[in-house]
Structure formats: structure tokens, C-alpha cells
Amino acid sequence: MAASIAASAFFPGSPAPAPAVPKNGLGERPESLDVRGVAAKPGSSSNALRAGKTRAHAAVPKVNGGGKSAVADGEHETVPSSVPRTFYNQLPDWSMLLAAITTIFLAAEKQWPLLDWKPKRPDMLSDTFGFGRIIHDGFMFRQNFSIRSYEIGADRTASIETLMNHLQETALNHVKTAGLLGDGFGSTPEMSKRNLFWVVSQMQAIVERYPCWGDTVEVDTWVSANGKNGMRRDWHIRDYITGHTILKATSKWVMMNKLTRKLARIPDEVRTEIEPYFFERSAIVDEDNRKLPKLPEDKSTTAANYVRTGLTPRWADLDINQHVNNVKYIAWILESAPISILENHELASIVLDYKRECGRDSVLQSHTTVHTDCNSESGETTLHCEHVLSLESGPTMVKARTMWRPKGTKAQETVVPSSL
């Protein structure tokens, strides 16, 4: 409303029609009207000087409540019809214009505190749309994620699959932002020429706490060499506000030929592409290198075996390389975990050893062996489980080990500055 008034004051439209004036005795209108549409007095039609004074004093207010204007002489109130309509006659009412501008500024001042645009940290606006950016002299990639309502589970926290998906997303965006993305799923241009793509062979993740709905997490990732024909990728997830560590993870990757579905060596051309981005740093210092079991064979009283059969991939579980996404294996592994563990414990760590890829026609079964451990220091009972995911025809797909802590137990939180 105020803006409309201001606009009309600056850009006056067609002049408003003059008010109706009664006709004279002969049915004719007066010979002259002043600029306000008031019939001019006969005695003032020849006095142009007095008309000018009238316009000059028209805006002077009445004083002392006397009902008389500052211009006492009534004959100055008339303007002869011979006065032409000039630019000055059509100027807007400045008092109305100033009132409109004041109204606009007062309204803006009330709304301004509601616009919380100031960043809580200087780098908050550097990743406005969540695309991520290269940091640390080009060796590290950083991206922020907001935990959505559809990413939380029954515990009102993000699931392990959600965090694992964040790891995968940052890995791909790292390759893309660095300008190394070919036409494959994370493949470099030289890899695409040779029908090669990356597959994960091992992964370990340690979860210190799970974020909640609305939390923002900050994910850092980087790569390094792993032997002659492998690559290592690490991640560090922290709470964006507090800096507390949420998850640390490391993984090992090898190359597979898209046509033969067999593992391949890293060509020199590919190594030349990726070596400039190698950064020798480990997210997890003490890695779990213990050997994982084949099939559950422990029949002791401290172990309990659980099996879930008939697991099949959906079309949505396949990635563009036409095999099951590695995060889906975690969901299948936990399918055979007893519900009592899921209700009373939370996953503290997981180690995965991927043996072979899974296609859309595969039928799998999940085995879980539960071991009970008693922590003598805290007196709390913790659990560790061994898992085997295999085809129902026999071959093993994935072997895993998980550690569980009672819900409500606080892990030893570490704070790592975002600059690292």
C-alpha cells in the first residue's frame, strides 16, 4: 500500500476529473475555473500577481485554532483561468510523498530483524547450495548436509545408511569438482576410455554420535594411494555448529572392467590423473585388521546365530554400473540382526569386506552371530556381531563385523577444527 502511494506520487497519472460545477443562469458553466476546479471570482480574474501569491501560500496551515488561514485576504484564494498548467503546477504533494517514504522505511525496519542473513561463521555462505568446495590447498573436499526428516529412523536420529550415503555423495562430488569426472560413476576420463570404474573392497566406519533432524553435518574427504593398484579414500564428518566428530571412515578401492566384470590394474594414464590429489592422512589411526569369519561356526553358549533369507535387490538398488550400491549391503546385513539389539543398542562401528558384486537377479541370505562382551571398567554390557552376506547358492558377497553400545551411552567425543 505504501509502495503504491509512493509510486503514484513520483509518477502521477492522468489528472483527476474536476468536481462538478453548477451552471449559471443560462445553463452555461462559469467562464473561468481555478486550478482546484473552483469558480474564480470576477474581481480576481485580472490580477495574476495575487494568483501567484495564492499558490505560494496554499500549503500554509491554519494557526491558533481560529479557523482562518495565514493568508487573511480572501481574494488571494482565487486563480484566474488564464494561468497555464505548467510542470510546477503538476508537482506531487511533497508531504504525502515523505509520508509514503517514511511508511516504507518503518515497515522495512520491522521486518529486518526477521531476516537472519548473517552467517554464524565467516565461511557459512561459501557453500550456499550444498555443492561443496575444494579446500586445504586442493587436497581435500568439503560439503555440508542438512539432515532431512526422511533420513531419520525410529530413534529420531540419522541412520547409518544416511551417513554412508553422505560419504558416497562427497566422494563423487570431489571427483566432479576436481574436473576428473568422466562418463562413468566416479570414473576419470582415462578410466572411461578403458571401460574402467571403481569398486570398494574394504570399508571401516566409527560412529561417535548420530545427528538429529535439522542438524547440519560437515563432511571432509580426501584420497591417497593404496599399494600399486588401489586407492584409499578417507572421510571425517563433524557437527557443523559444535565441531564434534560424528563419524570417521576409511575405505579401499580397486578397478573393475565394465565389460569383463573382472578386476584390473591402474593404467599409468589414470595414475597420472589422480596422483596430484593424493593426500597422506588417515581418518582412523588404529584400523581393525582382524580377520573376518566365513560362515557362522561358533556354537558356544556365548554366541547366537540368526539368519534372514530371500533377500533380493530392487531396481532402485542398482547404480549406473548395473550392480547393487555398496550402501545397500549394510541394510541387508542388519536385516538378520535381532530386533532386541536394534531397540536397545546403537551401532558404534562397522567393518566391511566386499568379496564380489551383486546383480539384480541375485537372491541372498544374511547371517548374524551375536557375541556378548562385558566391559569391566564401566560395567556396561556391549555387543559385537559377525555377519556374512552370501548368495543362497553359496558364494559369499560381504563379510562384516559390527560393534554396538547401549543407547544413551556417550562416546568419547573429539573436536577437530574445520580447518584440518
UniProtKB/TrEMBL annotation:
<dbReference type="GO" id="GO:0000036">
    <property type="term" value="F:acyl carrier activity"/>
</dbReference>
<dbReference type="InterPro" id="IPR029069">
    <property type="entry name" value="HotDog_dom_sf"/>
</dbReference>
<keyword id="KW-0809">Transit peptide</keyword>
<dbReference type="InterPro" id="IPR021113">
    <property type="entry name" value="Acyl-ACP-thioesterase_N"/>
</dbReference>
<dbReference type="GO" id="GO:0009507">
    <property type="term" value="C:chloroplast"/>
</dbReference>
<dbReference type="InterPro" id="IPR045023">
    <property type="entry name" value="FATA/B"/>
</dbReference>
<dbReference type="Pfam" id="PF01643">
    <property type="entry name" value="Acyl-ACP_TE"/>
</dbReference>
<feature type="domain" description="Acyl-ACP thioesterase N-terminal hotdog">
    <location>
        <begin position="140"/>
        <end position="273"/>
    </location>
</feature>
<feature type="region of interest" description="Disordered">
    <location>
        <begin position="11"/>
        <end position="79"/>
    </location>
</feature>
<keyword id="KW-0276">Fatty acid metabolism</keyword>
<keyword id="KW-0444">Lipid biosynthesis</keyword>
<keyword id="KW-0378">Hydrolase</keyword>
<feature type="domain" description="Acyl-ACP thioesterase-like C-terminal">
    <location>
        <begin position="305"/>
        <end position="405"/>
    </location>
</feature>
<dbReference type="Pfam" id="PF12590">
    <property type="entry name" value="Acyl-thio_N"/>
</dbReference>
<dbReference type="Pfam" id="PF20791">
    <property type="entry name" value="Acyl-ACP_TE_C"/>
</dbReference>
<keyword id="KW-0150">Chloroplast</keyword>
<feature type="domain" description="Acyl-ACP-thioesterase N-terminal">
    <location>
        <begin position="1"/>
        <end position="127"/>
    </location>
</feature>
<protein>
    <recommendedName>
        <fullName>Acyl-[acyl-carrier-protein] hydrolase</fullName>
        <ecNumber>3.1.2.-</ecNumber>
    </recommendedName>
</protein>
<comment type="similarity">
    <text>Belongs to the acyl-ACP thioesterase family.</text>
</comment>
<dbReference type="InterPro" id="IPR049427">
    <property type="entry name" value="Acyl-ACP_TE_C"/>
</dbReference>
<dbReference type="InterPro" id="IPR002864">
    <property type="entry name" value="Acyl-ACP_thioesterase_NHD"/>
</dbReference>
<comment type="function">
    <text>Plays an essential role in chain termination during de novo fatty acid synthesis.</text>
</comment>
<dbReference type="GO" id="GO:0016297">
    <property type="term" value="F:fatty acyl-[ACP] hydrolase activity"/>
</dbReference>
<keyword id="KW-0934">Plastid</keyword>
<keyword id="KW-0275">Fatty acid biosynthesis</keyword>
<keyword id="KW-0443">Lipid metabolism</keyword>
